Each structure stands twice: as structure tokens, then as C-alpha cells.
Amino acid sequence: MEFGTSTRTRFAPRERDADPLVIETQRKAAELLDDHKVMIPDFPLQGVRYLDFYRTFDRNPAVRAAALDCLEARYADHDIDAIAGVGGGGFGLGACLAHALGIPFHPIRKASDTVYDALSTSVGMVYAERQLTLASDIVTENEKVVLVDDTVATGGTSLGALDLLRRAGADVVEVATLFETTSKDGRNALAPTPLFAILSRAHF
User: Fold this and answer.
1) CA–CA gap between residue 186 and residue 70 (Å, rounded)
2) Lower CB count within 10 Å: N or C terminus of the chain?
3) How many whole angstroms from its chain centre is CA 16?
4) Which of 2, 161, 179 has its CA nearest to residue 80?
5) Could you read off the pLDDT tens digit of each residue along the chain, which spans 204 residues?
6) What are the φ/ψ torsions at residue 9 (nearest 5 degrees)?
7) How many degrees, rounded to 5, is the angle at CA 164 between CA 152 and CA 48?
8) Alpha-carbon dihedral sign for residues 48, 152, 68, 103
9) Phi-psi region for residue 11, left (φ > 0), alpha (ψ -120 to 50) or beta?
10) In terms of DSSP bridges, do strands 118-124 and 129-135 run parallel, antiparallel, or are they unpaired?
11) Helix, strand, or coil here: 116?
12) 202 CB neighbour count, 10 Å cutoff
């Protein structure tokens, strides 16, 4: 079903949580992600365990397909105007989802990347400080956007991305991620914006 038709319905996160198709595709994707996740110890700093979803997807096309099936089931045929993704993890995932849904993709990039006429913000992560940028003229006023990233821990990166999108005029209806580290409490940090995570664990 293409966006822009009269069959679009209002996006309601709690209603989608009870959708049998979303439940089943999430179950399958979570199981595959858990079985095939790639953990890199002591990277990028000593004591940090880095979840590398790109290696997971490259080595296991079925995991990539299942994750995208889950996200497409959640957001298809609903009142979403665009997908935004945080570089680098959210770029591949978000761009694929936007393509599947037939809607625009808004990249939120690191400040070192070339972005003309950019809004910028600084964010704190578990292991670093980062500056994010978003081109100021790509978001339509009151556009309904889903923000995609590969991992949410403390929520710092997602909070910075939310700030940029709202300053640009977007209405961010949900944050979507593959992995949520629940012990870092990012879900509460993002509230009242809902968080949808395919796989949630206290620790990975």
C-alpha cells in the first residue's frame, strides 16, 4: 500500500503493539538478532561492548530481512511522512525502511560530514561526545517522522536527533531501534516520545 492514499490511518504506537502481524514479525526478528548479534569487546573504549549490527546484517541476510519486515509491518499504511536515521547505524536501516514504505529519508549526520545550511547539536554518548547535523530545509513543517537508530542505551544520541528534527519542524511520532539496553534507561530519557525496540535486554 502506497503512502499518500486515502487509506492511511493515524499512527498509534500502543495499537500497533497489539497487532498480530507486528507481534509475529518482531518475535522472529528478535530471535534472529539475538542468535546472530556481533559483540566487539573493549571497543571503542576499554570496558565497552560494541554491538555491530552491520556485521550481523552482512553475514546473515535473513536477519536483515526479518528486521526490515518487522519495521515495515509496524509503519506501513499509517500516517508517517518520512523516516529519519542517525549515522552511521541508522542510515542503512532507515534508508531501507524509507524505500520500502515509499517515503523520504532524512539523514542526521555527524558534524564532520558535509551538510549545507545545517542545524547542529552536541550529544553525550556512553563512550564519547558527538555533534549531529541536519540540513535545515529538508523537513516539511509538522511532518510526521519516525526516527531510526541501530541501538538505544542512554538515549543521548536519539535525544540530540529529536532536538534537531523538532527544530526543523518535524513531529516525531516514535523512535525505532534494533537493540535497546534497558539498564541504561534510554526509554525514560526519550519520553514522552515512544520507543519501539525489536530486541530489549538489560545487558548485551
Assistant:
1) 21
2) N
3) 16
4) 2
5) 344 444 678 888 878 888 999 999 999 999 999 999 999 998 878 888 888 888 999 999 999 999 999 999 999 988 999 999 998 889 999 999 999 999 999 999 876 666 677 788 876 555 557 789 999 899 999 999 999 999 999 999 999 999 999 999 999 999 999 999 999 999 999 999 999 999 999 998
6) -120, 160
7) 25
8) negative
9) beta
10) antiparallel
11) coil
12) 9
Q: Output the nine-digit C-alpha cell for 163.
A: 532536538
162 closest CA partner among 106, 92, 104, 116: 106
- What letters, b where the CB count within 10 A reaches 16 and e where it falls short, cover 63-87? bbebbbbbbbbbbbbbebbbbbbbb
Residue with cell 497489539: 18
Nearest-10 crossing angle of helices 61-75, 20-36: 150
Residue 75, all three cell numbers: 509503519
Question: Among all chains, which residue has been given the C-alpha cell 503493539?
Answer: 17
d(CA 204, CA 120): 31
Query: Measured between alpha carbons, how far is 172 from 122 in angstroms, rounded to an integer?
Result: 19
Please tell me whether the peptide bond between 44 and the residue prior to it is cis, using omega within 30 degrees of 0.
yes
| Cell of residue 125, nine digits | 554518548
Distances in Å between the alpha carbon of 79 and those of 31, 91, 164? Answer: 29, 22, 21
- Nearest to residue 176, comparing CAs of 168, 166, 161, 104? 161
